[in-house]
Structures are given as structure tokens and as C-alpha cells.
Amino acid sequence: MSQTRTGHCMCGRVRFVARNVPQVFGACHCDMCKRWSGNMFNGVSVVSGDLDLTGQDHIRRVQTSEWAERANCESCGSPLWYRVTEPEFEPKTHNMALGLFDDTSGMTLGHEFFVDRKTSANDLPKDRKQFTEAETLALFAPEDASHDQGDKQ
Ligand SMILES: [Zn+2]
Ligand SMILES: [Zn+2]
């Protein structure tokens, strides 16, 4: 099952509508993904022709290897996608960062790359403290501040 989903970067200058989005996404634990995204990169493989992007002027593409590029929002820094640029590579897809999607309900992790590079820090401790949104805001946000969910311009 696949469907149309929307998403945007942290500042909202780059937005997208993706059609035929698969329910499964992948994680990559390679060193480049870790340093680029801050941890493992969770990517949703969208056929490039099924992707409508707005805010093109704010997208910074970097050719990070001979065969692939990574794109970020140049205003807020959000990682946007990983894409194989090798001309012969099929299918043509954009691996969109999972965190950009407005709604990920029903989506599940389907595969992992570079598992031998996975950091043990991703094994979540069983006795960890867990804070809800309200509990976290109570700890860090000024009382009268409105919560920034990333939906503001
Ligand atoms: Zn942005
Ligand atoms: Zn990677």
C-alpha cells in the first residue's frame, strides 16, 4: 500500500507533496549519514517523478560522492534527501528524510544499510526516562511561549 504524503523542512521554506509513498522506509548507519543527519539516516524512497517540490531556491545540493548527492534546506539546515546521481542507476528516486513527513502513520522500518557501522548508542536503554511533549515543554520552555512544532514559517 502506498499513498500521497506531504512534508516540509524545519523552517517550512522547502515543502513537498509525494505520491505513491511506500509504507516501508530504510535506515542507513554509514559514517556519512551519521555525520550528515546527526545519527542514522531514515529515508523514504520516493520515485523522483512522484515528487513535487516547492522552495527550490532554498535547496542546497552537495555531491557527496561520485554517485550520490545530499540536499539540505540552506535556510534551516534540515537534511532533505539522499539521491543516487549515477545516470545508469534505476529506479530514479529521492530518499526523503523520514523526519520531514507531516504524518508517518502506518510506516515501518523495512531495511537497514551498513548495519556493521551501527552505533551501539542506538540500542535504547530499557530503563530510560521518557518524557511526553507536555513534560518536556514544562522542563525547558518559558511558560508563556507558544510551542514551535516546526509548522511556523
Ligand atoms: Zn528550511
Ligand atoms: Zn548512509
Summarize the structure.
With 153 residues, the chain is mostly beta strands. It has helices spanning 31-37, 133-140, and strands at residues 2-8, 15-22, 24-28, 41-47, 51-54, 59-63, 68-73, 79-84, 93-97, 108-113.
Can you describe this structure?
Keywords: Lyase, Metal-binding, Zinc. Belongs to the Gfa family. The chain has a single domain, classed as Metal Binding Protein, Guanine Nucleotide Exchange Factor, Chain A, CATH 2.170.150. With 153 residues, it is mainly beta. A 7-stranded mixed β-sheet has the order 6-7-8-9-4-3-10. A 3-stranded antiparallel β-sheet has the order 1-2-5, with no helix packed on it. β1 and β2 form a beta hairpin. The two termini are 32 Å apart. It has helices at residues 31-37, 133-140; strands at residues 2-8, 15-22, 24-28, 41-47, 51-54, 59-63, 68-73, 79-84, 93-97, 108-113. The chain is globular. One zinc ion binds next to loops. The site of one zinc ion has 6 residues, from α1.
Strand ordering within the main sheet: 6-7-8-9-4-3-10
- Under the CATH scheme, the architecture is Beta Complex
Query: So how many helices?
Result: 2
**Major β-sheet annotation:** 7 strands, mixed
**What structural class should be given to the helix and strand makeup?**
mainly beta
Write down the CATH class: Mainly Beta
Helix content: under 10%
Count the beta strands: 10
Instruction: Give the strand content.
Output: 35-45%
Bound molecules: zinc ion
Entry keywords:
single chain; Mss4-like_sf; 153 residues; Metal Binding Protein, Guanine Nucleotide Exchange Factor, Chain A; metal-binding; mainly beta; 10 strands; CENP-V/GFA; binds zinc ion; 3-stranded antiparallel sheet
